[in-house]
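Hi L.,

You mentioned the student needs an example of a multi-chain input paired with its predicted structure. This one should do, with 458 residues in total across all chains.
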Amino acid sequence: MMALFIRAITAALIAIFVIGCTSTPQQSLYEEIGGHQTLNTIYGVAITRIYTDPVIGHYFKGVPKKHLRDRLVTQTCELIGGPCEYDGKSMVESHTGLGIKEREFYILVEYVQGAMRDVGLTYQQENRILNKLAPIKYETIYL
Amino acid sequence: MKKIFLFSLLLISSHVFADSGSRLIASGGITGFEGTAGGGITPWAFIGGYTSKEEISYSANVQYLSLNDYTLKTAGLGISLFDRVELSFQRQRLDISSGLTSNVFALLTDGAITNANSATIEQDIIGAKVKIFGDGVFTQNDWLPQLAIGAQYKKNRDFDSSLSLPDGSVPLPGIGVPLLLGAKNDSGTDIYLSATKLWLGYPSGYNLLANLTARYTRANVFGLLGFGSEGDDSAKLEWEGSLAVLISPTTAIGTEFRTQTNRLGGLAEEDTVVDAFIAYFPNKSISITAAYVDLGNLPLQEGSSGFYLTVSGNF
Ligand code: HEM
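Structure written out for the whole complex:
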């Protein structure tokens, strides 16, 4: 029973690493998840929830939904290997003066995560996208 | 005194956000058997719970490790402040079977005494951890880990609690198991530095966590067998590590190690501790971890390995 437990965990760890090292993705993450349409749905869902959130909703008063959604789609598209070029305002510029707290940042991240899940992305796809968005944290909070 | 301090912190903190916190699930690790957040047997640089810079959260845990003739039960409370500081109090209780204490007497008396009562060794641990650098989860664009330093003040409560025989007699008054095995002190402070990093999306889209901890300590078997010895009373550097993969949003599997210095020798020779675990985080309020832990030699039990179960709550 004990030996089995150890062996199962070791085997699972090795399997994850072996798969990780041998699979060479043929297509970009952008294509894999279904391109523009999927991203557009994800941010549509996330923005609806973000705009009505009791804690962070107020930041978005007067920010046109369509504008923000398009910007986010283009930005993420570029970050995950899609054929886009983000030419909106810099992250520091768009978030300066808002005074976003770390707690509020995490709330937004969870909405984006939740939207990715609801739209049907796999856990792995979700993590790979988060990997690209994560560093932007320090270009948005306490500015 | 320190307990009062913890308690007053609980009271003054009610005006900040105090729910389980907003950080990503599982990023607080679990509460280890010494009360510090991280893996089961080693601290991580991450602050326990899910607090952001603006939040406070509390934690409570119970733990059980079965090692044949030894059973370790621990329970404790913690508080996490602003994703910066973590304070904890843990009580450990090691039960030693009467079969084992009987063997101790049989050895000491050349077989004249062969029957003794079971024994208990309790230890209190007050822990403090401070994040000093980095964001091990969100700085995915570089390799820098998050760093934290910490201390665990440990007080063995049964350093000189005598073993007794079934007839109520006490052959060795004032000599507890740690003292009997050659330990010098009943308390000590471990100092550690932890470096922890989470890679989002690696390997193959899962999240990988790696931790390395360097600990400066004089503890014998974590302090359960006291601190230092007559022949060797110096603190030494020990290494500890965790490798974990989040295989789903709610499940992590992994493995850990922890080195120990063999100060007492003889019966109490110490080996490197290893474990393999699976941790389940159904939500941010609770985590349940099962592990198989191998401590190697414990006094009169050469192969000490067994099942570990712990439940931690955040609120
Ligand atoms: C990784 C996290 C984030 C990313 C990737 C991100 C991305 C963006 C992008 C692409 C824009 C559009 C800039 C433009 O108009 O050209 C924007 C604007 C904005 N963001 Fe963020 N953001 C993040 C976090 C946050 C958070 C946590 C908040 C608030 C809680 C926030 C509030 C806003 C607001 C209010 C605007 C509109 C600013 C304006 O038009 O004046 N953002 N963000």
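You could point out the following to them. The longest helix of chain A spans residues 2-22. Chain A touches chain B through 35 residues (CB under 8 Å).

Best wishes,
N.
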